[in-house]
Amino acid sequence: MGFARTRLTGVTINSSLKTYSGYTLFTPIGGKQTLLIDMEGQIAHQWKMGHRPGLHAELLANGNLLYAGHLPEGPLASLTGAGGEMLEVDWNGKLVWKYEDPYLHHTFCRMESGNTMAVKWVKVPKEIAQKVKGGIPGSEREGIMWGDSFQEINLDGEIVWEWLSYEHLKPEVDTICPACSREEWTGANTCEVLPDGNILTSFMKTNTIAIIDRNTGAIKWRWGQGEVGHPHHPTKLSNGNILLLDNGRHCTGLSIGYSRLLEVNPKTDKMEWNYMGTPWCSFFSSIMGSCQPLPDPYDPFGPKGRALGNILVCDATTGRIFEITHDGEIIWEYVNPLYHETTDFGRTNMMSRAYRYGPEYEGLRGLRAVLIKFGRVTPEKSETAEGKKARVRSRLEDLGY
């Protein structure tokens, strides 16, 4: 798997008996639309938005799209990941909910309550900023260092809970990467609200994955410094471990950067699984990217005693999405054929994240209704998770396994 693979576009690999079949959602960085494609790479649906993303969108269980938009006139619009608005639109693109704040950036999390957890830039008090170690000396933005705030926002646009990073981080411990500017202290790019209410996040500029105690605001667990380079998209697995994308940028001792997927046990701080490209330099998303653990209901040989099945990976900088097995085999690959002109990256096909939604996902009912209407699928022919599992078993038996 070399760099030349990204010269191909569309679906380049599709081992259908091994994949977690469904629909894949992604949002090109330079465009103003979010796309939903099928396993053959055909566009099943798209949402056209008013502004380009900052940086991604998700399909909610209610069938609506939650989209983080970039407001080009925002006070920090030139910072990577700058947003400014969150828009919820229905299947047909009609606006359902909107929230604006010029300091929003990177990401969000729709909570079970219907509230939304968002990431926002806030000024770090000077007396604290002066104590923060690391970064390029004198590179603050007009003398200001920006930190992160997590805000829970209800449907009326009210902030009902807030966490300020500078109140809980340690300047002598949470140090900035020496190759980065001091305009940002932390650079949060994830805010996953866990079932217990605590927050799993990734602080890119300090090379840290952390869990924040919802009740006290304290950092319950932090990991990554000296191990990873500018990580993204940590996710908690059913066994309690954390899956994350180690982008591998600015890692000391490396002549060429490369990215990895890691499964880390937060009880022991040990890496229990990892994936690298073959050759290792063929997978390098220097910025952005995601790794989504997929359900593993199709294992024809029964449970293997692990929480991690297939994984959907967004190799952001090459515009490539691929699915791997736990053993590292690439079983599905798609290269975004849509290029857009951008100020930051020139002409590019990059995207920030990608998500796979199985046929049983409630949020796909709008697509299902369209497919039935035009006779492309019937209720009887719609394949459930159990249906595919049975089909795979039958096929393997036919092959003599």
Give a brief description.
7% of the residues lie in helices and 38% in strands. It has helices spanning 126-129, 365-373, 385-398, and strands spanning 10-14, 23-28, 33-37, 43-48, 53-59, 65-70, 84-89, 95-100, 104-110, 116-123, 146-153, 159-164, 188-193, 199-203, 208-212, 219-223, 232-236, 242-246, 260-265, 270-276, 290-293, 311-315, 320-324, 330-335, 340-342, 346-348, 351-357.
Notable traits:
mainly beta; Neuraminidase; 3 helices; 27 strands; 7% helix; globular
Q: What is the topological layout?
A:
Layout: E1 10-14, E2 23-28, E3 33-37, E4 43-48, E5 53-59, E6 65-70, E7 84-89, E8 95-100, E9 104-110, E10 116-123, H1 126-129, E11 146-153, E12 159-164, E13 188-193, E14 199-203, E15 208-212, E16 219-223, E17 232-236, E18 242-246, E19 260-265, E20 270-276, E21 290-293, E22 311-315, E23 320-324, E24 330-335, E25 340-342, E26 346-348, E27 351-357, H2 365-373, H3 385-398
Antiparallel strand pairs: 1-24, 2-3, 2-27, 3-4, 5-6, 6-7, 7-8, 9-10, 10-11, 11-12, 13-14, 14-15, 15-16, 17-18, 18-19, 19-20, 21-22, 22-23, 23-24, 25-26
Explain what you see:
This protein is mainly β and 401 residues long. It has one domain: Neuraminidase, CATH 2.120.10.30. A five-stranded antiparallel sheet has the order 1-24-23-22-21, with no helix packed on it. Strands 4-3-2-27 form a four-stranded antiparallel sheet, with no helix packed on it. Strands 5-6-7-8 form a four-stranded antiparallel sheet, with no helix packed on it. The two termini are 29 Å apart. The model has no long low-confidence stretch (mean pLDDT 90).
